[in-house]
UniProtKB/TrEMBL annotation:
SMART domains in the record: PbH1
Matching PROSITE patterns: PROKAR_LIPOPROTEIN
A GO molecular function held by the record: lyase activity
Keywords: Lyase
Top-level taxonomic group: Bacteria
Protein name, UniProt field: Parallel beta helix pectate lyase-like protein
Amino acid sequence: MKRLSRLFTLNFLLLILLISCQKEEIEDSFDESVLENISETNSIVRSTTVCRFTLAGLQPNASIGLSCILDLKDETLNLPPNVKIKYLGGSFINGTINVSGGEIDSRLMTSTARLTGTYTLTHQEDVVDDTPSTNNEGRVFDPNAEGIIQGVVSDAVARENKKILQEFIDKAARENVTVVSINAIDAYFKTDDPSGRITAENMAITLPSNFKLKMGENTHLRMQPNNYKKTALISITNGNTDVTIEGGNLYGDRDKHNYSGGGTHEWGHIIRIKGASDVLIKGVRFEQATGDALHISELYHAFDSRHIESSNIRIVDNSFLRSRRINLTIVSGNNVTIENNTFVDGGIDTRYSKGTAPRANINLEPHREWNNGIVGGTLREYQKVHHIYIRNNTQIGRGDFYASHGDGPIVIEGNKMEATISFSVANGVRIANNTFEASDAEAANGNAITAGVAYATEHPLVFDNEVYGNTITGYHTGINTGGQNTKIYENYIEGYNGIVLSSGRGIGLHNTTISNNTIKVTKYGISARKSLDKVYITNNTIESESGPLVLSGINIDAGQSNQKLYVKNNVLRGKRNGSVYGFEKNNISNSNGIVLEQNNINGGFEINGSNKLDIINNKIYSEKTHGIRFISKTTTNSKIKDNDITINGSQYSRIQCIKEDVNLNSSVAFTNNSCN
């Protein structure tokens, strides 16, 4: 009651003070302390009453409050120096206020009023910057005052909502207002084109250059449900630059979309950045995109003289939830930083809609083609992705971080993951210092890291890639690698399988180093197959309950007889019994061209039908298995020399240092091996 009494008293004083129907002047300000004790916006109802006075008689240094709608009648109100006008529920409409060093409460401004001169905007909840602006920088979009109909509405109303907001933004831009703030709102916006002639980015709520859209935690902008394949809620395009979107909650129409028209409907985006630069997306919550929550691309193809790339994009402190295809996609972009975001369940199925390929959280997917399909010939690049930095994000649930194509640097670093990070036809990739803790789905049948292209061991676009410093726990496979030119080092892996070389449909791995990794697994430490050439497995420490090193079907096809896999200076430990390792065996089967040298091996080796093996200067200790055992099929053209083999067979008296279950070809030479 005390607060209401003060408000009544103040309005009464203002009514007496401000009425100037004839020539009366406003002499002085009321007591500022009374105004300061009045509660903030949430306790003041916006007035619908038109003022019955003007402010023509204001004196310099006056401090007043406005509790009604002041219609400027398309004229300019020139305020004297240092006037302060406070918000008491009122507003300015239809005109210009020219300020001379005064203060204006931002809540007084509407879409039909503008400020000029030198002034300070007050009421910090509505102003974007931490300090008051001294330029024409802020305007507040009041949905009720502007005519927005909130809640579930018809298509016609949703289209009018979009028109109202777009006109407000456009008018602010024309008047050099650089910040528009939206606070409490929950409304639908229809942004599709029934004719199909206007592109999605131009039908969206488009933001101009030199502009910031500031939203609060109670700002909810929603895509009106539709049946169109290509839509966007908000866009930054047409070469626009220096644009910020900060805060708020943005929604696609995924679970209410009409998919009956056929096709994937994968191009429904929440924010589309297409041919724009110097863009910041910060603190936004994205939910339920029909396609991608945030989609970054170009205007015109890279080889077109009209090409405008998207560049200098920062995506920070956002949350991305349950997009139907991908939470964040870059099909064309240069110098894009994705940092401190949370990504949840990209591409997941929901109760009302199935996800669609590739079902990811982040994907780099530029389109480029080799002329006539000849790899290494003439490359036609429609889109380019390069200088990408994905740092310190949190990924929850399903959905990979995937660089399907791209040119480096592509840095994926310091992220906390529950799914997979992978790259394919890319160069300059760094997957570094990430922490992986598998979700239930990934633990059952997933890789933490997939490195390289599976279908080619010689590819001109795949080189200079590194995977290092990652901590991986709980996955079915820690690292799966294929292709060429990758360094994998200093990773820590606990789980089912450690590192797999050329698995599944892959054809092999060339020119790759795997070194200084620590692997503790229940199945295989390092396993490899198919075409391996100039591959070096060195200085790793592997503990396995089944097989520290398992090599099968390596270099056995035509043209591979001179290829080499080198396994040197590793610690290979079989199943642990208390503090002793020496049980489970390593295995080489049906393979060609393997050098096994200077390893410290606990658990013995089993060799089946291989060729061109050099087993040299290893230290082998075994308690349960033979030191080196040849089984099933004969081995040829191999050297077994200078190995130090120790057998502790107190429980297994039949085990031997070297055991031949088959007659070996005379081309297998045993030289200077010791048996203890």
